[in-house]
């Protein structure tokens, strides 16, 4: 029995109708408190209820060991305040951020909306975070106190006050502060909520950022680029070329979409406006098919040589399996986790093990790109 789905979510979403961002802040505060008490009874109960360990789910990628392929996407723990809790919730890795060099408040409220009819969220947060200096101090303390059991990634964004022409230096300044504190790094040039940011996906702009970061990256930390689902195939092919040129660890596909196609939601309660009238990116189920298409394209273009982290519309083991067999070595969840609750990760992992058995496979690594390989 899943108490979250039966009682808690209906209460929060339908009866109390809590503000999405307020609820998120309270959740993060609770997780932050729990993460500072690693040996507590509560953490042991979480591990027992939510974690599933099986060697068939393990992978070693870009020098890091992932106990399972399901990770927490960037955006949930923006400041890394709960970095120690994510292994206890069943995740195989977690991505902190997006963090910017300059602390910033983000966009005006309200800026986060649930679209239950679409199993989606609309957000225009605008990289609200305490800045790279604060995150570095927090993670340095955490690293001193805790032994990490899963890889921790850090998602880097451009500060809003930094002009586009100075973007590369802005990313570099954050990376310098954090490079010894993250296990991998992500260049986020695909959020729709910072003016002009998506223009940095252009090959010439992105190459300037990657060039500076890799010059600084003397310890060879894995660096990814996170792309938008709204790019055309030519633009994605250009990014694949850059990934090879700058020896990136891989590509994260995809960020939120600016498309409003096929949405069932007519009016957002908090604003009285339609989703088409509201700025921001859509995540969740409406993104699922497009993100899978992008994953499949990247895998086909690279013959699986560039690792892909798949994200967008994952709610079930079937969704996860679809992303993995399309070419994703790892997957990330956020909106699905909000809707499905804390039991979701364990359910997905159990479902993936069943899929492996049904397919006669011995490890999750063997499933990566299977759908594409079978069509050759």
Give an overview in words.
The protein is α/β, with parallel strands linked by helices and 376 residues long. It contains twelve helices and 13 strands. The chain has helices at 3-15, 20-35, 41-50, 132-145, 167-178, 203-216, 233-245, 288-302, 317-326, 335-340, 344-359, 370-373, and strands at 59-61, 64-66, 70-72, 93-99, 112-115, 120-123, 152-156, 184-188, 223-227, 250-253, 281-284, 308-311, 330-333. The protein has an eight-stranded parallel barrel, surrounded by five helices. Helix 5 (167-178) links the parallel strand 7 (152-156) and strand 8. Helix 4 (132-145) runs parallel beside helix 5 (167-178) and helix 5 packs parallel to helix 6 (203-216). The longest helix has 16 residues, at 20-35. The protein starts with a helix and ends with a helix. The mean pLDDT is 93.
């Amino acid at each position: 029995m899943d108490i979250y789905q039966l009682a808690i979510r209906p209460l929060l979403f339908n009866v109390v109708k809590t503000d999405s961002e307020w609820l998120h802040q309270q959740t993060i505060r609770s997780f932050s408190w729990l993460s500072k008490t690693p040996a507590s009874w509560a953490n042991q109960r979480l591990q027992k209820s939510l974690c599933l360990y099986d060697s068939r789910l393990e992978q070693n990628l870009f020098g890091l060991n992932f106990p399972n392929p399901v990770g927490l996407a960037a955006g949930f723990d923006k400041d890394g305040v709960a970095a120690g809790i994510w292994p206890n919730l069943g995740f195989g890795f977690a991505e902190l951020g997006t963090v910017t060099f300059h602390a910033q408040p983000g966009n005006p409220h309200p800026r986060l909306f649930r679209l239950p009819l679409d199993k989606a969220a609309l957000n225009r947060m605008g990289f609200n975070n305490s800045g790279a200096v604060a995150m570095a101090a927090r993670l340095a303390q955490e690293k001193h106190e805790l032994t990490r059991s899963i890889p921790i990634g850090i998602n880097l964004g451009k500060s809003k006050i930094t002009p586009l022409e100075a973007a590369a230096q802005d990313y570099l300044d954050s990376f310098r502060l954090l490079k010894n504190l993250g296990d991998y790094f992500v260049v986020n040039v695909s959020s729709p909520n910072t003016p002009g940011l998506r223009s940095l996906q252009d090959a010439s702009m992105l190459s300037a950022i990657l060039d500076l970061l890799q010059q600084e990256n003397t310890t060879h930390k894995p660096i990814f680029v996170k792309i938008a689902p709204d790019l055309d195939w030519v633009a994605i092919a250009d990014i694949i070329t850059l990934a090879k040129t700058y020896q990136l660890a891989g590509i994260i596909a995809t960020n939120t979409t600016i498309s409003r196609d096929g949405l069932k939601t007519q009016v957002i309660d908090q604003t009285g406006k339609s989703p088409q009238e509201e700025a921001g990116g859509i995540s969740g189920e409406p993104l699922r098919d497009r993100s899978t298409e992008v994953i499949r394209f990247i895998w086909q273009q690279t013959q699986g040589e560039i690792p892909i982290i798949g994200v967008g519309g994952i709610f079930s083991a079937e969704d996860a399996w679809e992303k993995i067999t399309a070419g994703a070595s790892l997957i990330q969840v956020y909106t699905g986790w909000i809707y499905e609750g804390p039991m979701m990760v364990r359910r997905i992992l159990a479902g993936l093990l069943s899929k492996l058995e049904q397919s006669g496979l011995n490890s999750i690594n063997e499933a990566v790109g299977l759908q594409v390989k079978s069509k050759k």
